[in-house]
Design brief:
It is a single chain. This protein is α+β, with helices and mostly antiparallel strands. The chain folds into 2 domains: 218 residues, Up-down Bundle (Rhopdopsin 7-helix transmembrane proteins), CATH 1.20.1070; 149 residues, Alpha-Beta Plaits, CATH 3.30.70. Helices cover 66% and strands 9% of the residues. The termini are far apart. GO terms for molecular function: diguanylate cyclase activity.
C-alpha cells in the first residue's frame, strides 16, 4: 500500500471515529473532555484529508503539506489536552494550547528552511512528543488505573516512540542504514499513526464506558443525600469484620442511631429540609470518626456506625460525642432553624453473630433509648438474646 493510500485511510478512519462519537450517547450531556477529544479527531481528520489531497495533486503541495501537518500537530495537541483534562490536571491541559502554537511555528519555520529534511524531523519529533504527553496522562495514577487504561498508556507510548524514531533516524542517518531506508521509515511511521488512531479512538470510547460502569457500580452502594454508604454498601463493608469476629482479637463495635421525630421534619418542612438535616447529621458524625471507621445510612433517619478495634465502652464514648454534637448544633434550612436529637444503640460483634442478630441487638438497644425518653444511649446487654 503506497503512502497516499495510507494517508487517505487515516483520513477516512478519523472521519469514521468522528461519526461514531456523534452517535455515542446521542442526546446526553457531553463531558468537556469528551467534547475536546471529539474536536481533536475532527481536526486530525481535516489534516489527513488535506495531506491526502496534496498527495493526489488535487491541492497544491506548498499549501497542503504545511497546512496539513500544522493541523495534525494541533489535533494531536488537543487530544493530549483532553487526556490531561480527564486526569484532572487542568494546568497541563491549558499548557497544551501555547505548546501547540509554538510547535506549529517551529514546524513552519523548519518547512520554510528545508521542505524535506527538517520538515520530517520536526513533524516526527513534535507529534511523538505530544503523543507521549497523552500517554503520560493515561499513566497518571498508575496504581489505581484499570488494566485497560494501563494497556492504553503503554501502547500509546511505544507507538509515540516509533513516530519520533523516524525523525531521530533521519537526523542521525540522513542516507538511511542498510535495509532501513527512508521509504520504509515513512511506511512504519504511517502504520504507527494508523494504530494510534485505532488505539486512542476505540480506547477512549472503551474507557468512557468503563468509567460509566464504575460510576453506576459506586452509585449502587452510595446514598446520594449524605454521600455515605447506603444499606447495601454498609453491609458489604461489614462482611469481613463479621468474619474476623470469629477469631480471637480486638472487638469491633456497631452503633445504630435514629434521629428522634425525623418524620415531623419531612411532614412539617418538606423533604428538601429533611435532606439538609440528614447531610448535617452525617457531617457531624463523620467529624467524630477515625479514618478506619465507617458511617452508613440504613433507611430514613437511621444510620449505622462500624467501629473496628473498638470495645463497648469506647463505642459508648463515641456515641456520646455524637449525641452531644447533634443536640448542640441546630440545622439551618431555608424555612427554619431545626433542633434535632438522636437515640443510640451500641453493641459489639460476637463470634456467632449474623447480620440479623447483630442489628437486632443494636436495634433493641436503640429502641430502649427511645423508650427512656429519647436523646439517649443504651448498651445492648451481653447476656440477652436479641429479638430479630
Amino acid at each position: 500500500m503506497d503512502s497516499t493510500t495510507m494517508v487517505l485511510v487515516l483520513a477516512l478512519g478519523n472521519l469514521a471515529l468522528c461519526s461514531m462519537l456523534f452517535f455515542f450517547d446521542y442526546g446526553a450531556p457531553r463531558a468537556p473532555a469528551l467534547a475536546s477529544w471529539g474536536l481533536s479527531k475532527q481536526v486530525q481528520a481535516a489534516a489527513w484529508i488535506l495531506l491526502a489531497l496534496g498527495g493526489a495533486r488535487v491541492v497544491p503541495e506548498p499549501l497542503a503539506l504545511p497546512g496539513g501537518w500544522a493541523l495534525l500537530i494541533g489535533g494531536v495537541a488537543l487530544e493530549s489536552a483532553a487526556l490531561w483534562e480527564t486526569a484532572h490536571r487542568r494546568r497541563l491541559q491549558r499548557a497544551m494550547v501555547p505548546l501547540a502554537l509554538g510547535a506549529v511555528f517551529i514546524f513552519l519555520v523548519s518547512y520554510w528552511i528545508d521542505p524535506l529534511g527538517l520538515r520530517t524531523l520536526a513533524a516526527a519529533l513534535i507529534l511523538g512528543a505530544f503523543y507521549l504527553l497523552g500517554a503520560a496522562a493515561l499513566a497518571r495514577g498508575w496504581h489505581r488505573a484499570s488494566m485497560l487504561q494501563r494497556a492504553l498508556a503503554v501502547v500509546t507510548a511505544l507507538l509515540a516512540l516509533l513516530v519520533a524514531a523516524r525523525g531521530i533516524l533521519v537526523l542521525v542517518m540522513p542516507d538511511g542504514w542498510r535495509w532501513l531506508s527512508h521509504d520504509l521509515l515513512r511506511q512504519l511511521s504511517t502504520i504507527a499513526f494508523y494504530l494510534l488512531m485505532l488505539v486512542n479512538g476505540f480506547g477512549w470510547l472503551l474507557l468512557a464506558r468503563e468509567r460509566l460502569q464504575a460510576d453506576l457500580a459506586r452509585l449502587e452502594t452510595l446514598d446520594l443525600v449524605t454521600e455515605a454508604p447506603n444499606r447495601r454498601g454498609f453491609f458489604n463493608a461489614l462482611a469481613p469484620w463479621m468474619a474476623l469476629a470469629r477469631r480471637p482479637g480486638s472487638p469491633t463495635a456497631l452503633v445504630v442511631l435514629d434521629l428522634d421525630s425525623f418524620k415531623r421534619v419531612n411532614e412539617g418542612y418538606g423533604h428538601p429540609a429533611g435532606d439538609v438535616v440528614l447531610r448535617h447529621v452525617a457531617d457531624l458524625c463523620k467529624r467524630q470518626l477515625r479514618d478506619s471507621d465507617l458511617l452508613g445510612r440504613l433507611v430514613g433517619g437511621e444510620f449505622a456506625l462500624l467501629l473496628p478495634r473498638t470495645g463497648a465502652e469506647e463505642a459508648m464514648l463515641v456515641a456520646e460525642r455524637m449525641r452531644a454534637a447533634i443536640e448542640a448544633t441546630p440545622v439551618k434550612t431555608e424555612r427554619a432553624l431545626i433542633s434535632m436529637t438522636a437515640s443510640f444503640g451500641v453493641t459489639t460483634i460476637r463470634p456467632d453473630d449474623s447480620n440479623v442478630t447483630l442489628f437486632g441487638r443494636a436495634g433493641a438497644a436503640m429502641r430502649a433509648a427511645k423508650e427512656a425518653g429519647r436523646n439517649a444511649i443504651r448498651l445492648a446487654p451481653r447476656e440477652t438474646v436479641p429479638e430479630a
